[in-house]
Amino acid sequence: MSYNISVLIIKLNDKKAIKKRAKNFEWILFASLIIFLIFGRYFENTIGGYQLFWKSAVFGLLLNVLTVYVISFFHNFTHDKPTRYNILSLSMSFVLIIPTLSIFINYRFPISADKKERIEINKKYINNGSKGRKSYEIFIKTKFDKNERLSIDEEFYESISNNQLIELTLAKGILGYYYVDDIKAINKY
């Protein structure tokens, strides 16, 4: 959708174009991929992280359309294959970078003191990834999802059981979503 709107803006804007420099924006996708790989890890332990991700992705698409519109005044997008790659790279970059930075900003800038919340574990799970790597996860019920996933370390995974109570230390970020700072097991006895 963002791509099609961006192409339409370029076609409308090129009718009144004077001489502009041709520019290649394909490389920007790699910069946003690097940012996604560095800061994407904060996504897992944000309560309601999926909702924040999709809200930010829609904002990123709108920002992309505005950016392409402004750039089209200063640079020429040629009407062949590179145009598609330039616009597609810009669109994908904004869809990756805006949600990633939103999650990071929410984590990095808390607006309230930590709060503790007791929650029961729905289930625990070992995710066998590629190259023999394992990630340990628990699923809890939140207001956003019946099975919100949290990443934990192997030692903590071994010390807990399904349906056990845990205590989450939550910090509310500047964007209004809670981030899990710490997870502790609560003994039943």
Largest sheet: 5 strands, antiparallel
State the assembly state of the protein chains.
Answer: single chain
Number of distinct beta strands: 7
Number of domains: 2
The share of residues in extended strands comes to 15-25%
Percent of residues in helices comes to: 40-55%
Spatial arrangement of strands, main beta sheet: 5-4-3-6-7
Shape: elongated
- The SSE string, one letter per element, is HEHHEHEEEHEE
Structural class given helices, strands, pairing?
alpha+beta
Count, helices: 5
Distance between the termini: 55 Å
Low-confidence stretches: none
On the 0-100 scale, what is the average pLDDT? 82
List the SSEs and their pairings.
Elements: H1 2-14, E1 21-22, H2 28-39, H3 49-74, E2 75-76, H4 81-108, E3 115-128, E4 134-140, E5 148-152, H5 154-159, E6 165-172, E7 178-185
Parallel strand pairs: 1-2
Antiparallel strand pairs: 3-4, 3-6, 4-5, 6-7
List keywords for this structure.
single chain, 189 residues, alpha+beta, OB fold (Dihydrolipoamide Acetyltransferase, E2P), 2 domains, five-stranded antiparallel beta sheet, 24% strand
Summarize the structure.
The chain has about 190 residues and is an alpha+beta fold. Helix content is about 45%, strand content about 25%. The chain has 2 domains: about 1-110, no CATH class; about 115-185, Beta Barrel (OB fold (Dihydrolipoamide Acetyltransferase, E2P)).
Description of the structure:
Helices cover 45% and strands 24% of the residues. The protein has 189 residues and is of the alpha+beta class. It is built from five helices and seven strands, in the order αβααβαβββαββ. The chain has a five-stranded antiparallel sheet with strand order 5-4-3-6-7. A two-stranded parallel ribbon has the order 1-2. The protein has helices spanning 2-14, 28-39, 49-74, 81-108, 154-159; strands spanning 21-22, 75-76, 115-128, 134-140, 148-152, 165-172, 178-185. A hairpin with a 5-residue loop joins strand 3 (115-128) and strand 4. It folds into two domains: 2-108, no CATH class; 115-185, OB fold (Dihydrolipoamide Acetyltransferase, E2P) (Beta Barrel), CATH 2.40.50.
